[in-house]
Each structure stands twice: as C-alpha cells, then as structure tokens.
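Record type: monomer structure entry
Structure origin: computed from sequence
Chain ID: A
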Amino acid sequence: MKPTTSPKTYRVKSFGCQMNVYDGERMAEMLGEQGIVPAPEGEDADLVVLNTCHIREKAAEKVYSDIGRLTKGKTQTKAPMIAVAGCVAQAEGEEIMRRSPAVSMVVGPQAYHRLPEMLEKAVKGERATDTDMPAIAKFAALPERRRTNPASFLTVQEGCDKFCTYCVVPYTRGAEISRPYADLVTEAKKLVDAGAKEITLLGQNVSAWSGEDGKGHQVGLAGLIRDLAKVDGLARIRYTTSHPADMDDDLIAAHGEIDKLMPFLHLPVQAGSDRVLKAMNRSHTAESYLKLLDRFRAARPDLALSGDFIVGFPGETDVEFEETLALVDEVKYAQAFSFKYSPRPGTPAATMDGQVAKDVMDERLRRLQDALNRDQLAFNEASVGRTCEVLVERKGKHPGQWLGKSPWLQSVWFEGDAQIGDLVEVELVEAGPNSLAGTLRETALSAA
C-alpha cells in the first residue's frame, strides 16, 4: 500500500443492530474531530467505514461485495480508503486483510477509539488491524456529544455471557460489562444538550447492566432509568435488547412508575418449544416467558410487546414450530423480528445434527411472518382513535408532512406546523401494517 493524502471526506455505513448505529455515530464524531467532514450526498467519500454485523447470513461475503463495489473500475488513486469495523472485523480481521488488499484498516467493535491513530498509519501506507477487546476503554477516548438526533442511542452495556448456541455475540463483543453510572448520566445530559428528546439505552443484554450510583448504592437498569428520568429536557426513555433471565422486579415496577419510560418492551423469546429453547441454551421456557410478560402487562397495561424469533433451528420439528405459532397467537406482538436459522461459524449449533432444509425454513418463516404481520396490523388498528404524543424525527415525502414515533414505537405521519424535535399531540386516525396516519391536535408541546 502506497502513502496517500489524508482523507478530507468520509462516509460511515452501518449494518445490523442499533448498537452498530451508535458505534457508527461515534466513529463519525471521531473522524469529525480529525477535521474530516461527511461526504455530500451523491458524491464519493475519500474514506469509507464499513461498520459490519455478523448476525445475518453470509455477513462476511456481503462485506467483500461492498469492498468490490467501492473499488470496481477505479484506479488506486481514485478508490476510497476503506476501513472495516464492527463484528465481522472482530471475527475475521486477518482474513479480510488477506483477501482484500484494498482495505487499509480493520478495527473491532471494542477498539474503534483507536481509529485516528490507525488512520495516521494508513496515510503513511501502513495497513493496520486492531481487534483487541479492552474492557470499555473506548468510551473514555470518544469525543463529547455535540449534535444528535431527537431520538438518540446510548450504549450502557456490551457483551453477553449467555452463550446461546446459535449466537456469535460472546465471541465478537466479549463478556458482559457495564459502563460506569456516572459516565452514562454525563453522556445522557450531553445528548440532551445536543438535541436529544428521547434516549434508547443499548446493550447486547441491556437488562444485565449494573453499577454504583452517585450515592454509592448498587443499582440495576431500573435504578439507572429512574435517575435518567430526572434529567431536565429528556422526555422519553427506552431500552433494548433484554434477556428474560435478567428482568427483575424493580425493572418491572419501573414500567408502571416512570412516566418517561415508554410503554414498549422488546423481549426476545426465539421459539415456543421448550425442547428447542433448551437446545438454544435459553434459560426460559415458553411458560416462564409468558408469565413474565403477564407481570409486565400488570405493571403497564398499555404495554406494546416486541420479540425475536428463529425458525428452523437444528432439530426443530413441525410440531415444535406449531408451538412457536401458538405462543405468537397468545402474546399478540405489536412488532417482532423473525429470521431463518443460519449457522454462525464457531457456534455450537453450527455442527448440530438435524439441520433443517431451506424450503422447510422458508415455509415456516412465511407462516410465522403472516401471523406476526396480522398482529402488528391489529395492534395499529386498535390504536386508531387514540391521541398521543409523537416525537417528530424527520420530514415526510410531501411538503408539510412529518414523521415521528408514538410512545408505542409506531411510525406516525401527519401534516401541519411542526419541526424536527417537537413533541406534538396527534390523534391517530388511520392504520396500516407499518405506520399510522395522524391529525395534529395542537402546536408543539416542546421544541428542539
């Protein structure tokens, strides 16, 4: 690799989970601190950061496809400098460097705070790989939050100790570790100062967060939420993703006691068969999961529920899949994510007997998604006639149209006098499968 000039523009392309979105934002902020600016829309960037996710099928191959698109037909002087970050970088860093000479930097999700010094090496013609996994060291090295979206993310916890047999997270993100309480309160206040009205607390297992509060008391996620609710200017709090094993009494109670905690819970179950759940190394049963949801609904009766599902896990029978459909019928999710099982290299499930045929998985996923889509539409239709606060996040497709989120995380569009960052009263008047139409009832309750 030859020496080159320092990049003047960048583009960060993030894939996958909301934590990757957070990480992508922080990397962009770091590049901004180096005097590099976002590439204008429609123009090539001097530096492209591919912030990757390893959860989806053929994730690594998609990275190589992106690299190929960035370099195809371009000379060495015109091709962008490429950095591969995120979980694919963590899992396959050396292989990426070997297969893709066009890549200048490979950096894992726990080491991206070192991106500026890696960039210095790349400009000198030195390729660099950093997939170390220091315990949360990156956060202390990140720049202050100066500008953000009305609905913003805040990573509070990383890693997972559950070792579900299908999942690569323990290998790409490491063991569970919680960021310090004081750091989180400080960052939350800076996010609000920078324009955030809503903060979603993120973690691979966010409900496992714990720390010592300002009075020296040990607190869990509910304690953190209670204190963040006291931050002036913060109107809404959400959290994701949780594990059923770590949902404690205090967190359940918080849903009924804290107005700023939105009535929405994403709690993955993955399957409705106890045998499949055990093979997945999930610690809950279908019955214990349903009882847990009952407790949350008792605390907050208008709670909207979301979940994750995997169909075609090795050994899953037709009868066991029907148990998943039965669970869906009972819960009636407002939203959900569903996927076909795909083997992740290095995970126990990848070598299990009974790998399910693709056509069988396709049919099961279609039936599951039909049921989930049915319930999502029903939830939206049941919302018609409600008047609720909507946080305006962006402009709509047409002049005077705005898009935002209801307390139940539904997409709502309406027309009228508003600005991005406003909280407005909207009557929900028409429901579709993925969004609702609303009528603005008042001027903005609070402006950005």
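Annotation 1: The chain has 13 helices and 21 strands.
Annotation 2: The longest helix spans residues 358-383.
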